Each structure stands twice: as C-alpha cells, then as structure tokens.
C-alpha cells in the first residue's frame, strides 16, 4: 500500500508540474483532484463494497452451528404404545466437525478479496486522476486557443485599418478592405468558437464532481513547456509495477485461496450427535450418540480442484495479455509524446520566429506600398496556422504525457530544461 500511495502522489506531482497555476482563487489541478477524490461515486462505492466483504469475512469465520433437537418415540400408537405412557424422549445436540482446514481456507479467501479491493480502489482512483488531468488540459487548451484567436483578431483589426487608409488614399480598391473585413470576421468567429469550447470543457470538468453551473476560472500554465521524460526502456520497467498488473497479484492470491478451499473439500467432515434419552419404563435415562462420515468426498472434490487450477492458469495468461497490451499502449504514447514535443519545440524555435519577422516586414512593405495585401494576409494566415499547429502539438504531447503517467504511476525526474521554455508563441 505504501508503494501505491507513493505512485499516486507521484502522479499528482507530475500533473501539477505539467499545468502550474499561480493564483489562489482560480481552480488549480490539485483542487480538481481533491474534489474528485472526495465526491466521485466510483470511489465512494468502494466503501460499501468493503463493508460487504467484511461481512463476508465474518460469515466465513463462523464455525458450523450447533443443532439442538428433541425426538419423541412410541406415542399415540396402539396397545402399550397408546397415549403418552410409553413415550421415549431424546434430547440431542449435533454439529459438524470440519476437517482439512476448511475454516482457515474460507478466511483466507475472504481476506484476500478485501486486500484486492484496496488495490482496485487505488487503480480506479489513478484512472480518475488521469481523466481529471485530461479534462483540465482541455480547459487550458481551449483557453489558450481563445488567446491565440484574440491575437489574430487584433492583427486583423490592424490590417483592416491599414487597408482602409490605403483605400481612402486611393492606393487600393475597396475589395481589399472588404477582404480584410471578411478575414477579421472569420477571426472573430474563431474566437467565439474557442470561448464556446472553453465553456463546454469547463462544464465537462465540473461534471466529475457533480457541479452543474461551474463558475470557477483556471489559470493554465505554459502548455509549450513540455518536460523531458525518461527513456522508453526505463518507462517499460516502471510499467511492471502499474496498477493494472499489480491487481493480478491479488487476483492470483484469491485464486490460490480458492484452490486451497477446493482441496479442503476432499477431506470429509464428521457429523456428530450426542444426547440423553428418557426410557419408557420408568425414570431411567441413557446417553445416546452417533458419528457419520460421507463417502467419496475426494472424488467429488476433484472437479472443483480442476476448475480452481484452470482459473489460475487462465489468470496467468490474462496477465500476459494485459502486459502486452499495456506495453503496446506505452510504446504508442511514448512515440506520440516524442513526435509532438519535437514538433512544438521546432515550430517555436525555427518556424514562428521567422514567420513573425516575415509578417512584420510584409506589414511595413504594405503600408509603404511595396507589397500587396495578399502577401501580407497570406503571411498572417500562415503565422496563425503555425501558432495553432504548435498548440495542437503541445496539447498532444501533454495528453500523451498524462497517459504515460497513468500507465507508470511515476514522477519524471528529468524536468524541463532551458530548451523547453523556448518556442513560446511570439
């Protein structure tokens, strides 16, 4: 459990690094984590399941019940047995003497199910935290899209003003002004669409803790500061301790407990009974007793033993299949992360700075009458598209990072270096 708690803490820490916030009032990622951990029904459900399994443990710890009985013979018959004068009354106490360790096997099985529930809850908790991080990222991404759209609107407004001045001076036709205004309207549409996406993403995030009308704000960190992560070989080694595979350890314990319980059924139990009998011919009493044992229990127990063994074998195969699937998922997420991180970094370092200089030069040339509106507008559109491409790459890298964190449950000791802070949108 200490290992699982450490992995959970590491996941929270890494997500907090990925999306830093700097204000107390806006909702932080840690705040969202706490709200989900305290209120989500998928986690609260484990409390009821734990109580049910504890009751099952208490029931499994009970020994066979004592059975008190009374038997009356030779009554209401004919001849000497008429009436109650010839009645013989026997009072008895009976039970079952369990053999083969059945009581311990039942306890072990019930306790192993309780232990497995704790790991299952932590795995569910980790999955929920990953979902919180993804939805939080969606809000931050939509907010950043709105900021980029606003930058484009501001640029298009300056373009419309410049085109209008040139038209008024007779240096360009009215069609240029109309074209610039249409481009401005399209940028305003992109801004409105980004705001709608942000509102929808905020509602989607708040739904995780049941908030119907979210009014919180989010201060997202720099999405372009994508951290470095460990090599794939190291991540693959961490994958062996992922919650999805750790659950198989507990499932194996449950399977072994079931096998032991099935084996204990091969040992027959003794049915015993003792009592005292009142004789019919007076006030004399006598002790009575009996012992019985079923025959053929070993043969009847064999199907259950074979089934328990088969379940253990199938569990090992299932673990192998899940391990391969997780490894494939990790490899795919690691590949996506590397490609997206490289794309975002190179766009920021090489493409956007050059486009910014080219767009500024085109603006100067257009105002001086040395360049056409089409050249300036084309560079503006290309620069805006590059910004969006960089943001999309950064979001893809962050989503892949969340998936890697979910799979490994580990913090990445290699934090962002100086190069990671480069490539910010100019």
UniProtKB/TrEMBL annotation:
One of its GO terms (molecular function) is efflux transmembrane transporter activity. SUPFAM superfamilies: Outer membrane efflux proteins (OEP). The keyword Signal applies. Keywords: Signal. Residues 1-23 form the signal peptide. Pfam families: OEP (PF02321). InterPro entries: MdtP/NodT-like (IPR010131), OMP_efflux (IPR003423). Belongs to the outer membrane factor (OMF) (TC 1.B.17) family. This is TolC family protein. It comes from Denitratimonas tolerans.
């Amino acid at each position: 459990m200490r290992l699982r708690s450490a992995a959970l803490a590491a996941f929270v820490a890494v997500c907090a690094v990925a999306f830093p916030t700097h204000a107390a009032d806006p909702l932080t990622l840690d705040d969202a984590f706490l709200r989900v951990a305290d209120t989500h029904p998928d986690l609260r459900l484990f409390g009821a399941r734990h109580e049910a399994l504890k009751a099952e443990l208490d029931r499994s710890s009970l020994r066979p019940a004592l059975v008190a009985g009374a038997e009356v013979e030779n009554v209401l018959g004919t001849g000497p047995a008429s009436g109650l004068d010839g009645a013989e009354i026997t009072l008895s106490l009976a039970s079952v003497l369990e053999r083969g360790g059945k009581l311990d096997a039942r306890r072990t099985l019930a306790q192993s199910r309780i232990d497995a529930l704790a790991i299952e809850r932590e795995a569910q908790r980790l999955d929920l935290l990953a979902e919180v991080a993804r939805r939080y990222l969606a809000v931050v991404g939509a907010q950043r899209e709105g900021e980029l759209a606003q930058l484009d609107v501001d640029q298009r407004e300056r373009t419309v003003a410049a085109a209008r001045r040139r038209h008024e001076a007779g240096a360009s036709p009215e069609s240029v002004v109309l074209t610039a205004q249409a481009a401005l309207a399209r940028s305003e549409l992109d801004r409105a669409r980004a705001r709608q996406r942000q509102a929808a993403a905020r509602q989607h995030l708040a739904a995780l803790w049941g908030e119907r009308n979210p009014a919180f704000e989010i201060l997202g960190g720099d999405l372009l500061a994508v951290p470095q992560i460990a090599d794939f070989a190291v991540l693959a080694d961490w994958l062996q301790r992922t919650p999805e595979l750790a659950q198989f350890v507990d499932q194996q314990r449950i399977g072994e407990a079931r096998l032991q319980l099935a084996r204990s059924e091969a040992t027959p139990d003794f049915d015993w009974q003792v009592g005292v009998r009142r004789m019919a011919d007076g006030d004399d009493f006598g002790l009575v007793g009996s012992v019985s044992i079923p025959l053929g229990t070993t043969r009847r127990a064999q199907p259950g033993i074979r089934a328990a063994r088969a379940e253990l074998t199938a569990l090992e195969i299932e673990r192998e299949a899940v391990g391969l699937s997780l490894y494939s998922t990790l490899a795919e997420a690691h590949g996506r992360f590397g490609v997206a991180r490289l794309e975002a970094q190179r766009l920021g370092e090489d493409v956007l700075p050059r486009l910014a200089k080219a767009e500024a030069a085109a603006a100067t040339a257009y105002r001086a009458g040395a360049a056409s509106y089409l050249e300036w507008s084309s560079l503006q559109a290309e620069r805006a598209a590059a910004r969006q491409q960089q943001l999309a790459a950064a979001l893809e890298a962050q989503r892949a990072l969340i998936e890697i964190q979910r799979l490994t449950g580990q913090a990445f000791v290699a934090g962002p270096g100086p190069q990671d802070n480069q490539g910010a949108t100019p």
